[in-house]
User: Fold these one by one.
Assistant:
Number 1:
Amino acid sequence: MAGRRARTGRGWDASPPRTGDPTPRPRRGRRTSDDESPPGPGAAGRADADQATDTPRDEAEVAREICLRQLAVRPRTRAELATALARRGISEETADAVLDRYDEVGIIDDAAFARAWVSSRHAGRGLARRALANELRQRGVDGDTASAALEELDESTEAETARALVERKLRTARGEPDAVFRRLVGMLARKGYPPGVAIRAVKDALAAQSAEAAEFAEQIDADALTDTEG
């Protein structure tokens, strides 16, 4: 077998590479944990940024943002803001601190809110003092503050508004005088007018509308009806 060329192989009998042959390249494979490079500074920076993003925000800052968003829609009472903060999970201690500060700088002012509410709702919707007092109470305005605001709406102004409301409705009212009378008195009652004010306003407006309505109005005893309602 001397004439046969020596067998090459991978082990001890492998022939050395001939001159000019390329140097064998190592096989590629997955690096082991020993030769893995540590993460660079960029990776560490991203991790720090992610951690900073997850850091919880200051509760007082969140509370202030909630209040300002509420106030951007319309003026609010302190009670309304406190309810909004509680609904968002703000602690009572933080809410009190933020609202106390807003009170100090005049951002919230229940007295000013009540005055503006009475003026706007009476002029725009024709609401009487009783209905306005109920609305202020629902918004958390205390009784003394509400009473002070309602004092600016006197009885004569309330009676004039009632009469104007009736006259406007009479322009499109249809039906017999007694049916119209009942509907209009009911309308004023829903707006918070006392029975006496409502009945007199409707009686006076009917008397000025037509001869038939005036004849019916003459039969109405406002004082007797008021006593019955009472």
Number 2:
Amino acid sequence: MKFTKMHGLGNDFIVIEALENVDYSELAIKLCDRHFGIGADGLLVVEPSGIADIRMRIFNADGSEAEMCGNGSRCFAKYVYERGIVKKEKMAVETLAGVIMPEVFVENGKVESVKVYMGSPIFVANKIPVKSDKQKFINEPVKIDGKAYKLTSLRVGVPHTIVFVESLDENMIKELGPKIEKSFLFPQGTNVDFVKVEDKENISVRTWERGVGLTLACGSGACASAIASAISGKTERNVNVHFKAGQLLVEWLEDNSIYLSGGVEEVFTGEIYL
């Protein structure tokens, strides 16, 4: 099987074109294993679409299928454009979360960066979903292991829960992340974004990704973190989101639409025997 390895700020993916008679969930678990497989945060599958230019399916490293993925969609757009599968610089991509609209920026025939329309944030608790008697779950105190944390949840394609912190301590993230991800509050689980506000236009983020664990970057997490920061009055609506390997720009427009921009890289191509 031929594959391509790509990443957006270290959030890495294996990209393959549609195969017949294959269980993609099992395949993702095998391929994403960093010791016995290729190694990645997720598997992206290129499929034809009846409603858009192309269809993207996303499988997390644990085999679960995700509705959407910001960095994955940017890698996906670079892949299909450079291979001539979609010959538009602005394309429509079908996902489980709906149709998204990546735009590629090309230099000398190569995609250097991708801007993607990420839809609009959803704050309604039962649509995220969050088990709460409140309509929105913003800055809500929740006790975990006897300690109170203020959580903000929203949906940007997938569920995200934001925790504002003074420092991005990795041990704390690894301990707290899975407890929030699997909390009874979130019947479908949740991605957990730990956010340190630097100033009105810059935040630093580490994401504990549902079904994956601690990742180097997360596109939808960048969007959710920026929006949570803005509605809390901590930042402006346009925010540079800093991860370990670089930064993404999130623009939350007055019409409620979200745009995510940043670089993507193709690392290598290869073949693996199944």
